[in-house]
Amino acid sequence: MSLHYVRPTWADAVFNGAVGWFTRRGISLAGSRVLGVRGRTSGEWRETPVNPLRVAGERYLVAPRGHTQWVRNMRVAGGGRLRKGRRVEEFTATEIPDAEKPPILREYLRVWAWEVGRFFEGVDAASPDDRLLEIAPDFPVFRITDARSEQ
């Protein structure tokens, strides 16, 4: 079984680089943050720009490119940090089962389709739940919780 993954193009790399650069300097583009997660084999911090999402009072990270390296690292690390400028938030992460993803994916597409819609190949915020459930295995979702609130 091959896991769904969309490799970034050169344009994606330039766009992500710009978003990361601004976000690291405290200028969030539409709510962006820089995700830091420890590498599953190296233990070194790896960073990538992400779009945190709030649904029904919970916060989530959705992987629009599928089973990326940050997703694989998050599964091992169980958490990471989100950064905007000098503000760093440590968090723990719990992967969401596919059956719970449709409302989260719908909201993610409603908010972020302008940026990531092309990765969902014709599925959008108006798609029926059964279609969102069908694609759910291709798009990992993590519920994130502030590490300080768990102490």
UniProtKB/TrEMBL annotation:
Instruction: Identify the InterPro entries for this entry.
Output: F420H2_quin_Rdtase (IPR004378), Split_barrel_FMN-bd (IPR012349)
Q: Name one Pfam family in it.
A: F420H2_quin_red
Q: What is this protein called?
A: Nitroreductase family deazaflavin-dependent oxidoreductase
Q: State the organism of origin.
A: Microbacterium pumilum
**Which lineage do the record's taxonomy fields give for this organism?**
Bacteria, Bacillati, Actinomycetota, Actinomycetes, Micrococcales
